Sequence to fold (334 residues):
Amino acid sequence: MRVYVNGESREIQGNPSLAELITELDLPAARIAVEVNREVVRRGEWGSRMLQDEDKIEIVHFVGGGFGGSSPQRGTKVKLYP
Amino acid sequence: MIIAGREFSSRLIIGTGKYRSYDEMRSAHEASGAEMVTVAVRRVPLDRSTESFLDHLSPTLQILPNTAGCYTADDAVRTARLAREALQTDLVKLEVIGDQTTLFPDNEQTLAAARILVKEGFVVLPYFNDDLIMAKKLLDAGCAAIMPLAAPIGSGLGVQNPATLRIMREQLPDATMIVDAGVGTASDAAIAMELGADGVLMNTAIAEAADPAKMATAMKLAIEAGRLAYLAGRMPKRLYASASSPLAGVIK
Fold:
């Protein structure tokens, strides 16, 4: 099936849970947060949340910044959701 | 400075962006004496492994996630929810930008987001255009503080509308008022405090200084000086001189 992770299309095999996807992506599980189809999925529910075809997944972490999209790389503008 | 019942001994809140290195950021944070720093929420890069930015912050600091970069109430609400989930904190610096060139806040979207977030139990600290009526609406919505701008984000222009900040202070004496954005140097922070602000939030003024740690120290002292001057009550301004020595007894 096809899911979208941070805006990127990904073809995945089988019927994985959100927890399995995060493991496969090799992301540090600490201090990240995940939403599926615009709803936050709490950490404790990652294992039981089975992915569906066309799910839109956002995985976020924290970066340096104070205001208005200032980022550690000077002059880089990042839009959160395109 | 009290935010939602929690007392902070430092009146300075600082950002974590634009530093030339993590070391420079840490030295500046330490020199500033700030107890709270703000961080932004972004998509995790999937193409490379990244260390957690939070590991570069002193564990004693209170982390204040922000919604910087959001242009709609909906995006800001989603970002705040994600931040709460990851950090287990109800604090959020709410920021909804209305325009890319000026980075001025969209007050209408900010208010809409604030209403939703307060209902969900967030401690909302909203960044907004310095406007008394908007400040009242944000407080009515249940925001824990008001955070009017001094000048555009990253402009370093200093307090552009001192009269507006003073009016806001006088009309809303019980509100926690934190001047957020636009400070360029220590005197700007002192002026904000002399006008009655409870605190100042800044990023670029420290991060883009030639010596960020030195500027952070300057800001700390300026905020203390400005607060003391506000509490001391300044003398009235006069157009003409007023001698401070007795007029009688001058030798002839």
